[in-house]
Amino acid sequence: MKQVTRMLASLAVVALMLGAGPATAQAPQPAEARKPPPDLVLRGDAKCTRCHNEEDDPRLLSIGKTRHGVNADRRTPTCTTCHGESENHINKPAGAKERPKPDRIFARNNETTPAEAQNGACLICHRGGSRVHWQGSGHSRSQLACASCHSVHAARDQVLVKATQAGVCFTCHQDKRADIFRFSTHPLRTGWMTCSSCHAPHGSATEPNLIRNTVNETCYTCHADKRGPFLWEHPPVRENCAECHNPHGANNPAMLKVRGPFLCQQCHIATQHPSTLYSGSNLPPNLAADKMLGQQCANCHSKVHGSNHPSGARFTR
Ligand code: HEC
Ligand code: HEC
Ligand code: HEC
Ligand code: HEC
Ligand code: HEC
Ligand code: HEC
Ligand code: HEC
Ligand code: HEC
Ligand code: HEC
Ligand code: HEC
Questions:
Q1: Reduced to 3 states, what is the DSSP secondary structure of residue 272?
Q2: How far is the CA of 67 from the centre of ligand 2 (A)?
């Protein structure tokens, strides 16, 4: 705050000069001498920016370049809309040893202002839209603040940019970072997709906060070919794609949770069809040996998501 003190001092100098200037031939007008400093980026921000100016921290003023800085929009907040009137902070009470904190401090740790009070200040304007499920969502129950993900002073809020969003999520969900570096994964590293391609970060009607009502409906938004209906349906596919796939990534091809025959054998172990490893004697007749490669059931049952072929009951065509 050295700069602040310096700035206040220079303001005093300016005021003195104004008072003594030739334009004020009459007696100096005290009101003019105390002419308030100008707003810097937001309507009415001078209250705060007379101290928190460019010199104090240029990053703070970047808020003027965001959607919160559109002064022509009457819904645009100013410093005090979010941080509170903060009278004692602005005018340090005589005798106070330290400058009291502003009414609301937004931070990932909720030490000074509880998450609910921080979020309440944002929800005044943002209660609608995708926040309708905020109350009761896992993130809200865990006392996350809006500022746990959003950086409203930054010119570009990382969590709103596809290519950088996952990085914000990884600060807490570290296991998911490991997932997206596995052998097979969605194009998350390239930023072509991101977490919010499937998840509603503010909460939704679905656990775990998916953008649609079920896992499958979420997948169909891009993988429409898997929606069916099929003449021959495979029950686990209709039920939940995540029975077999880990949508965040896996070390098996096609993001399969479990490799090769073991995936299928979780359910099909007891069928009369050879689900044991193949040897010469238990080969079904007329089957080429290359179909046995890696004991992949899907080599033959290639229509594992369902089939529309009249004789596709076994998902082989
Ligand atoms: C008279 C100078 C002055 C004015 C006016 C002023 N502040 Fe401050 N503010 C300070 C000082 C000094 C600090 C503590 C040093 C620092 O962090 O820069 C501070 C710190 C803060 C902090 C960080 C608090 C923390 O502990 O993390 C916030 C937020 C803040 N001010 C917001 C505001 C807002 C909003 C306004 C207008 C309503 C405002 N300030 C007006 C001087 C001022
Ligand atoms: C006084 C009303 C008001 C308050 C309070 C407010 N906002 Fe906003 N916010 C707006 C307006 C207006 C927009 C622009 C929306 C638009 O154009 O549709 C906006 C936009 C946003 C956006 C989208 C930015 C973008 O680039 O698309 C985010 C994120 C956001 N606000 C978060 C917050 C957070 C977090 C808080 C609390 C710390 C907050 N807002 C407090 C009015 C407010
Ligand atoms: C500050 C830490 C933090 C950040 C940042 C964070 N999360 Fe979370 N997230 C949590 C916690 C804690 C839970 C556990 C909630 C529970 O168990 O009820 C959670 C739960 C979840 C869940 C499970 C759904 C639920 O309601 O339990 C999903 C999905 C999720 N987060 C996605 C995301 C995404 C996507 C992002 C980035 C946009 C993100 N998270 C950023 C802390 C965080
Ligand atoms: C877990 C991280 C996380 C938390 C916590 C979070 N957001 Fe968001 N928010 C996001 C992400 C990610 C997006 C972008 C969503 C998208 O692209 O679909 C977003 C988008 C937004 C937007 C702009 C788009 C829209 O839906 O209007 C606003 C406004 C917003 N958030 C406000 C808030 C408010 C207010 C809070 C606190 C109550 C909050 N957010 C808490 C991650 C979060
Ligand atoms: C839309 C709500 C909103 C508005 C408007 C707003 N702030 Fe903030 N402020 C926040 C949030 C949220 C944070 C936490 C850091 C972040 O998100 O970038 C914060 C952080 C701060 C900090 C602490 C920065 C640090 O690095 O510790 C200061 C100081 C501050 N704001 C001052 C101001 C001043 C001055 C204005 C007016 C020009 C202002 N704020 C306008 C929401 C707001
Ligand atoms: C392709 C869609 C998709 C994408 C992209 C995605 N998820 Fe998920 N996520 C899911 C589904 C589906 C589940 C539920 C899995 C289940 O039921 O086994 C889930 C579950 C979760 C859970 C809660 C259960 C758990 O596994 O811990 C968290 C947390 C989570 N995802 C975080 C993230 C984060 C962070 C990102 C971004 C790096 C992300 N997800 C990207 C679809 C996705
Ligand atoms: C936002 C669009 C989108 C959503 C939603 C989505 N995917 Fe994908 N999926 C993709 C893209 C893009 C690819 C990569 C295609 C490519 O590389 O050719 C892909 C690839 C895959 C692959 C093949 C990976 C490989 O290595 O061959 C599987 C399996 C998959 N997705 C499953 C799912 C599941 C399960 C869900 C739902 C939980 C889902 N996807 C939701 C876009 C999406
Ligand atoms: C019973 C296990 C199982 C279920 C359930 C399942 N899949 Fe698959 N999926 C597989 C197998 C096995 C492969 C690899 C097929 C191959 O190698 O030919 C695969 C491959 C894929 C591929 C990449 C190849 C292709 O066909 O495009 C996508 C995309 C895919 N699955 C999406 C989905 C979606 C979406 C769902 C939910 C509607 C789903 N899967 C449910 C087993 C399953
Ligand atoms: C989560 C359990 C589950 C998994 C995993 C699973 N299936 Fe199935 N599968 C079923 C159920 C349930 C049926 C319906 C059985 C019935 O109708 O008698 C079925 C039916 C079939 C059928 C048709 C059987 C018939 O009698 O018509 C074939 C073929 C099949 N599955 C192959 C596979 C293959 C190949 C895999 C691995 C890629 C696999 N399944 C993984 C549960 C599963
Ligand atoms: C070499 C090709 C091939 C491989 C590999 C293969 N199957 Fe089959 N499977 C078939 C054929 C062909 C049928 C149809 C037999 C019939 O109609 O009598 C069949 C039938 C089935 C059936 C229907 C019930 C039955 O026993 O007739 C199930 C379930 C099944 N297979 C599961 C599996 C599983 C699980 C694996 C992997 C462990 C697997 N299959 C590997 C060719 C194969």
A1: coil
A2: 7
Nearest ligand for residue 194 CA: 6
Residue 303, pLDDT above cutoff 90: yes
Q: Count of CB atoms within 10 A of residue 47's CB?
A: 18
Give the residue whose CA is nearest to atom 37 of ligand 3. Answer: 169
With vertex at residue 155, the alpha carbon angle to CA 154 and CA 156, rounded to the nearest 5 degrees, is 85
pLDDT number for residue 19: 39
Distance, CA 289 to ligand 7 centroid (Å)? 31
Q: What is the DSSP letter of 252?
A: S
Q: Each residue of 235-271: b (16+ CB within 10 Å) or e? A: ebbbeebbebbbbbbbebeebbeeeebebbbeeeeee
* Amino acid sitting at position 56: D
Q: At residue 139, what is the residue type?
A: H
Ligand nearest the Cα of residue 61 is 5
Rounded Cα distance between 295 and 283, Å, is 12
Q: What is the DSSP letter of 104?
A: -
Answer whether 50 contacts ligand 5 (Cβ < 6 A). no
The pTM score is 0.91
Beta bridge partners of 73: none
d(CA 113, CA 213): 34
**At residue 115, does pLDDT exceed 70?**
yes
From the CA of 96, how far away is ligand 2's center (Å)? 34
Angle at 309 between CA 291 and CA 239, to 5 degrees: 85
